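Can you please make up a protein's amino acid sequence together with its fold in token form to help me picture the idea?
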Amino acid sequence: MADPKGFLTTPREEWPRRPVEERVRDWDEVYVPGGLLPIVSTQADRCMDCGVPFCHEACPLGNLIPEWNDLVSREDWRAAAERLHATNNFPEFTGRLCPAPCEAGCVLAINQPAVTIKNVECAIADRAWEDGFAAPAPPDRLSGRTVAVIGSGPTGLAAAQQLTRAGHTVAVYERDDRIGGLMRYGIPAFKMEKHHLERRIEQMRAEGTRFRTSTTVGRDVDAAELRSRYDAVVIATGATAWRELPVPGRELAGIHQAMEYLPLANRVCEGDVERSPLSAQGRHVVIVGGGDTGADCLGTAVRERAASVTQLDIYRRPGAGRDEENEPWPTYPKLYRLSAAHEEAGELRTAPAAHADARLFAASTLRFVGDEEGRVRGLNLVEVDAGRRPVPGTERTLPADMVLLALGFSGPDRGDGIVAQLGLQLEPRGTIARGPDFATNVPGVFAAGDAARGQSLIVWAIAEGRAVAAAVDRRLTGGTSHLPAPIGPYDRPMTV
């Protein structure tokens, strides 16, 4: 604890964002370049190094947060990077994309603004790359055992890196033309520029991990045949089966799933196409779904110069502070949060029919309205109460010639053939069934990440990847493994 009075004398200060008018003209990250390092050491001083650090429990990775906070406050960046990477393969991803449940569990957050753990984490990761502290770590010797990892999202990449470093020969199979999964084509560049992903991939290549892109297991390669070629298989395909909205008018043209829309915008940033065929430019856009994916659609539509953008959230607007009775510390509370995209939409006044930040809360879609050519032209909605029951007299119609459905995901895609070809058992909710060691009902086949857990956070995805790697390593080495297993398959976040 470098400054015993830091939490008393230093107010919370976060990484500043660039001005809205500037950042909506490009796809660069929303934060001020270089704006984090000048403030992060004093922010790390706010960590109390408390005797029972609940931030550890709130983070599924078990990040050693007080330790690297203390090291950053002393500006020992090398040691801080070592402690951070001891529990997290990709801290520059979580430092940008994770909603930081660790901060909700910060002891200081009982009666003050929490330590800016996420910002400190990101600063350490970026400094590690700048100063050469993230060198490849290839194994000293190979085990002679082989592993196929299906899917290159955070779970698949974490599992692959851990198993490669343990000495196994690992091949990652990815159906897209580039590695990264949702981090590549689902997360917009203004939230995480793709060079962060590229340098991790190059690090993994240098360590010995092999990548097979444009290969859909179940179609291009039979899953059972793949199983016969490897000593173990890890299924980390994510939860890509999107939820539908079965209301009248769903068949109209102009209504798209968020994951049909977002990848095309990312391909524009990659230089694959000059303009997205689903561009929101000049259109009245309504986004159905109030989560992070909906916010990603919002920020993307703003940058594409939509005529208007409105986001519908079926839940009532949460409060600005924690409900101590229903959501006591250290659980992750439902709060009114203003993402960068909501800040942009609010300042630019993109949604005349909505409140300050383009969101309409407690709003449920009744039907879509179309024209004679079968294109969507409006969305009919109604206000709902806390029980999602329609409030009489609150129906209205929003103009919409483009609708994006951001309703979440139910489990792995059943259409690729993996489940049927391997004969995998499923849970009633559609996820892949597994035992306490992450193993499926098929010998040698393991399941991890959203494909088995269900839709979750990136920090849980990385934790799953590290944990399944330990389980696979135990199988391949005869029962022992030095790889860490931060969570079990049945662990869940701290909730009420």
Observations:
- Residues 151 and 247 are 33 Å apart (CA to CA).
- The chain is about 35% helix and 15% strand.
- The mean pLDDT is 96.
